Amino acid sequence: MYFRSSFQAAPPSPKQAVFPLADLARFGDRLAFTTDSYVVDPLFFPGGDIGTLAVSGTVNDLAVSGAKPLFLSCGMVIEEGLAVDVLRRVAASMQRVAIEAGVSIVTGDTKVVERGCADKLFINTAGVGVVPPGVNISARRAQPGDVVIVNGFLGDHGAAILVARKQLALQSDIASDGAPLASLVDAMLGACKDIHCMRDATRGGVATVLNEFAASSGVAIRIQENALPIREEVKGACEILGLDPLYLANEGKLLAIVPAHAASSVLAAMHAHPAGTRAAVIGEVIAQPAGIVVLHTVFGGQRIVDMLTGEQLPRIC
């Protein structure tokens, strides 16, 4: 399984791809490398499938480090008896998203296991990218006075999976938000190269990412409930099941912490991009209490937003 974008590696062989270092150095002098595995159930759901998740998720893990994503690998574990048409659909989705993201899938592998030893299809993707000079994005860089920005509606992916599993007897148009965000990050860095922190809010949602930022930077983060962009359908699904949308998984949403003076220019760049039209400032970084995330509620009170322990929904991505 090999898909090409505009950036070319050497012709792939089954087990490895060879990259010309001189070409990589045109983008920067630091490599970014990531890997993730995808076990979502069901394989197909409103707004995407396991293939779109695999490519988008790995591209986004690279992009939020400030890297330009370039190359991906793909490994598949296939349960005996899986229909070939399912593989074709998944491969087509991966090709489409790879082209959209401007990356090449340059090497891969498949393994088939006996019926009952896996659940239909598992995918692992690894990605390589290059970090441009002057970009220094880290969970340790949040500073008091910074603002917190999200690029759109929260919790759509988690809610879409719930509906697809028929855990909710709802007629709903909620679709997964899965999408590659590399071009959005490029636009944000074009507006402000000094973005302090950035992370895609996947498993554990917004709450988990903000807690990681607060703990790593030794600061507090205060968010405003009335500023959180959450669809009414997602709120309703969470109320029925007793879930908190702040912990729902997202597959096309990122959180960025930027200096206050750059917030308006970063927001303007995001609003001009299809993946950021609903971008909003949802909070700010403060000094104390260090390591804590605080939510100011619509009723005028406040509560601590803890790190998620365990997992709200298994096999969400």
- Percent helix range: 25-40%
Tell me the count of domains: 2
Strand order of the largest sheet: 8-10-7-11-9-12-13
Largest beta-sheet characterization: 7 strands, mixed
Q: Could you tell me the strand content as a percent range?
A: 15-25%
CATH topology of the largest domain, anyone?
Answer: Phosphoribosyl-aminoimidazole Synthetase, Chain A, domain 2
Describe the structure.
With 317 residues, the protein is an alpha+beta fold. The chain folds into 2 domains: 21-131, 60s Ribosomal Protein L30, Chain: A; 147-304, Phosphoribosyl-aminoimidazole Synthetase, Chain A, domain 2 (Alpha-Beta Complex). It contains 8 helices and 13 strands. A 7-stranded mixed β-sheet has the order 8-10-7-11-9-12-13. A 4-stranded mixed β-sheet has the order 1-6-4-5, with helices on one face. Helix 5 (182-191) runs antiparallel to helix 8 (263-271). The protein starts with 20 loop residues before the first helix and ends in a 13-residue tail after the last strand. Residues 1-10 have low confidence and may be disordered.
